[in-house]
């Protein structure tokens, strides 16, 4: 079983090797650029942020922007990286399941002694590995940018900040597998889960902006995301979101096992 898992994960990563670079390098270069320009804009940023409304700074997790870690979180980790990795996660599972059904690759896989539920499970594991690789590439390029600009970015803080995106993105991989239990069209799966991703972000943002609506934030996974680059990873939130992601993947695998592949 472990050999079968390794083979399926290896095949997934081989098929998506270009995607690893296509996502990891741009995100890493963008993060590196943010780090590189920080020393030259630090003074202007401090003055500008002082005039921002408190509710706005709270909503977008903006501190005083007096450190490169705060600036990196405000520019990359508060919005761009979580949304990008969440979308990548659902694209990865959609490619491995609904995309495989559309192209006929799924029939080839099922000709071997392997269940559809096991294929769905390995797609989830493969996506988890893919997300981790993309995040590692991003951290490496960000750290190189810090060295070039002498920006004094804490490597430990950067690792915590980017690692904290992993369970959040993984949750949308789990939702993607659930979606394949209802549709084998890649566009439907991707569009539906991407819509949930954006909706959850907006719900959390509205809850941050309006204290009277703060309760709706519990409907969004972003409520548990936090600011790990400054505050460190919250173990309870990290593990809790990961457990929910695994539970969704298990539910999706069960649905995928029982659905009509002709539909």
Which of globular, elongated, flat, extended, rod-shaped describes the shape? globular
Strand content: under 5%
* Radius of gyration based on Cα positions: 20 Å
Q: Return residue spans where pLDDT drops below 50 for at least 5 consecutive residues.
A: none
> Element order, helices and strands?
HHHHHHHHHHHHH
Structural class comes to: mainly alpha
Question: Helical proportion?
Answer: over 70%
Distance between the termini: 29 Å
Query: What's the tally of helices?
Result: 13
Summarize the main sheet.
none
Average pLDDT confidence is: 86
The total strand number stands at: 0
Question: Can you describe this structure?
Answer:
By secondary structure, the protein is mainly alpha-helical. The chain has 13 helices and no strands. Helix 5 runs antiparallel to helix 8 (116-149) and helix 10 (165-180) packs parallel to helix 13. The protein is globular, with a radius of gyration of 20 Å. The chain starts with a helix and ends in a 5-residue tail after the last helix. The model has no long low-confidence stretch (mean pLDDT 86).
Short description:
By secondary structure, this protein is mainly alpha-helical.
Per-chain topology:
Elements lengths: L1 H14 L1 H34 L3 H6 L8 H10 L2 H17 L1 H6 L1 H6 L5 H34 L5 H9 L1 H16 L5 H24 L18 H4 L3 H24 L5
Helix pairs in contact: 1-8, 2-4, 2-8, 5-8, 5-10, 5-11, 8-9, 8-10, 8-13, 10-11, 10-13
Spell out the key features of this protein.
mainly alpha, 13 helices
